[in-house]
Amino acid sequence: MAETILFVLMAMGALVGAVTIVAARNPVYSAMGLLGTLFSVAVLYVLQLAHLVAAVQVIVYAGAVLTLFLFVIMLIGVDKSEDWDEKLPYQRAFVGGLGGLIVLFAGALTVFGNFDWVPAATNTIPEATNGTIQAIAELLFTDWVLAFEATALLLTIAAAGAIGLAHHRTGQT
Amino acid sequence: MIVAAGWYMALAAALFVIGALGLLLRRNALVMFMCIELMLNAVNLTLISAGRALNDLNGQVAVFVVLVVAAAEVVVGLAIIVAVFRRRATASVDELSELRG
Questions:
Q1: What is the pLDDT of residues B6-25, one digit of tens each?
Q2: Chain B, 45-64: which have a CB under 8 Å from a chain A CB?
Q3: What is the distance between the alpha carbons of residues B59 and B57, in angstroms, rounded to a whole number?
Q4: What part of A 7-66 touches B (C-beta under 8 Å)?
C-alpha cells in the first residue's frame, strides 16, 4: 500500500517537473522542474531497491549536473526572449503526431491495462536485486570492467575537452 | 512488489516522450539539454524496473554507465554552449545556421 501511494505521488511529481521543463519560459524554472523530476525518479529507484543508484542520482544529477546548469544559466544570462516561431516545415505536425501517439498509448493502457511487459523472473532468489554497494561492485569489476574502463577514458577526454573549449586566450577572439 | 513493473515503464515512456517533445519544440540550447537529461532519466528508470522485474542486478550497473556518459555529455555540451555564447551572444539554436548546405 505504501509503495502504491509513494509511486502515485512521485509519478505525479516527475510528470509535473517534466512538463515544467518544457513549458516554462524562464530557464531557471526549467532547471527547478528538472530538479523535481530527478528527486522523484530517485525515490522511485529506492522503491525498486536500487539504493545506491538513488544516492548516486541525487549526488551526481541533483548535486553536480543541475548546479552546472544553474551556473551556465547565470553565466549567459536568463534569456526569456525565446523565438517561438517555427522555422522548420512539418516540425509542428511531427510534434503533434508524437503527442497524439502518447495520448493514444495512455488511453490504450487505461482501457486494456495489461502490465505483463516483462516475462516473469527465471531465478527467484529473494532480494537478488537489492542494490547494495557490494553486490553492484562485484558485477561492475567483473562483467562490466570493459565498460568501466571505457567510461573512465570518456570522462577524462570530456574533462580535457571542456577545459580546451573554455580556455580563453587574451588577444584572440 | 505491489506496483507492477509495467507502471514504472509507462511512467518512463511518458517522461521520454515529454523530453522528446521539448527537444523538438524549444529553441533555447540549455532547455534542450535539460530535455536530453530527462530522456536519459526515463531510460534509466526503464532499466531499473526491468532489472527489478527480472531479478537481475545488471540493470542497475548499466544505469551507472548511462550516468557517467550523461555527466560527460553535460560537461562538453555546456562548454560548447558557453563558447558559442561568447562568440555570438545568443543561446538560441536557430541563430546558428552557418553550416547550412
A1: 888 889 988 999 999 998 88
A2: 45, 48-61, 63-64
A3: 5
A4: 7, 11, 14-15, 18-19, 21-22, 27, 30-31, 33-34, 37-38, 41, 44-45, 47-50, 52-53, 56-57, 60-61, 64-65
3-state secondary structure of B76: helix
**String of b and e for A131-170 (b: at least 16 CB within 10 Å)?**
beeebbeebbeeebeebbeebeebeeebeeebeebeeeee
CB contacts, 8 Å: B91 with chain A: 76, 79
8 Å CB contact of B76 and A30: no
Per the listing, cell 512538463 goes with A19
Per-domain residue ranges for chain A?
A: 2-78+93-117+128-166
* Exposed / middle / buried, residue A76 (Cβ in 10 Å: 0-12, 13-18, 19+): buried
- Could you read off the pLDDT of B85-101 as tens digits, one per residue? 887 777 777 777 777 65
Domain boundaries, given as residue ranges, for chain B: 27-90
Q: Give the tens place of pLDDT for each residue, A118-131.
A: 665 554 445 555 77
What is residue B92's three-state secondary structure? strand
Distance in angstroms (rounded) separating the CA atoms of residues A43 and A40: 5
Residue range B27-90 in CATH 1.10.287.3510: yes
Q: Which CATH architecture has domain A2-78+93-117+128-166?
A: Up-down Bundle (1.20)
- State the residue for C-alpha cell 577524462: A156
